[in-house]
Design brief:
It comes from Mucilaginibacter oryzae. This is YhhN-like protein. Keywords: Membrane, Transmembrane, Transmembrane helix. There is one protein chain. By secondary structure, the chain is mostly helical. Helices cover about 75% and strands about 0% of the residues. α2 runs parallel beside α8, α4 packs parallel to α6 and α6 runs antiparallel to α7. The longest helix is centred in the first third of the chain and has 25 residues.
Length: about 220
């Protein structure tokens, strides 16, 4: 089995890890972490559906075009992350910036959704840039608390770390993916698979954290 295929399979299976963590720790999760668990469940369904499309090849011998699914997933991601970061930020300025940047990113995504069969390179890049800005802003808020806290014990710290790691690593891949020759894409997809595995492990840690009484 090719390394790229093996890592892709591990990446898909790794999506179950945070789901199981959420199920185990569900009673102790706050509302925001339950939102995260719900989104990860939806994300896992997307990943599995795309994985199955690669396994099922019509009479052409090629996998189904899953780009329309990717467009839908990017749109859903903007809605979810915009809402969760809006609730996380204390500053009214950061809340307004979140809404403005999210509206801009959504406009870009909807514009390129006119071509659903094309890979959403620009849309994914816009989403990644949005998440990098929001996650860095939230880290600034975490590092300037009103009271002393152990941020490493905060589920939201790990959640935010996962968001930043995934977006920062993959943004250049998303920017260039459409320009990569088809015969070389499997090699570059390894980067995405490894990033996805690590991110799911970070989300697992986030969902296993006990809630802390803080004003974040």
């Amino acid at each position: 089995m090719l390394v790229s295929v093996l890592l892709m399979n591990i990446s898909v299976v790794s999506g179950l890890s945070p789901i199981l963590a959420a199920a185990y720790n569900y009673k102790r999760l706050d509302d925001l972490m339950k939102w995260l668990a719900s989104f990860l469940l939806i994300s896992t369904v997307f990943d599995w559906s795309m994985w199955l499309s690669y396994q099922f090849k019509p009479h052409t011998g090629h996998p189904l075009n899953t780009n329309p699914v990717l467009h839908a997933y990017v749109t859903l991601s903007i809605v979810f992350f915009s809402l969760i970061y809006y609730k996380l930020f204390r500053s009214s300025v950061l809340k307004i910036i979140t809404l403005a940047l999210s509206a801009l990113a959504m406009s870009i995504v909807l514009y390129y959704a006119r071509h659903p069969l094309d890979y959403p390179s620009v849309s994914n890049t816009a989403l990644s840039l949005l998440l990098i800005i929001l996650s860095l802003s939230y880290f600034y808020q975490l590092l300037n608390p009103q009271t002393f806290i152990h941020i490493e014990k905060q589920g939201l710290f790990w959640f935010n770390s996962g968001v930043l790691f995934y977006s920062a690593v993959n943004i250049f891949l998303f920017m260039l993916f459409s320009r990569i020759p088809d015969e070389d894409k499997a090699d570059y997809y390894v980067i995405f698979s490894i990033t996805n595995i690590i991110t799911n492990l970070i989300y697992t840690v986030a969902l296993l954290c006990k809630p802390q009484k803080t004003d974040l």
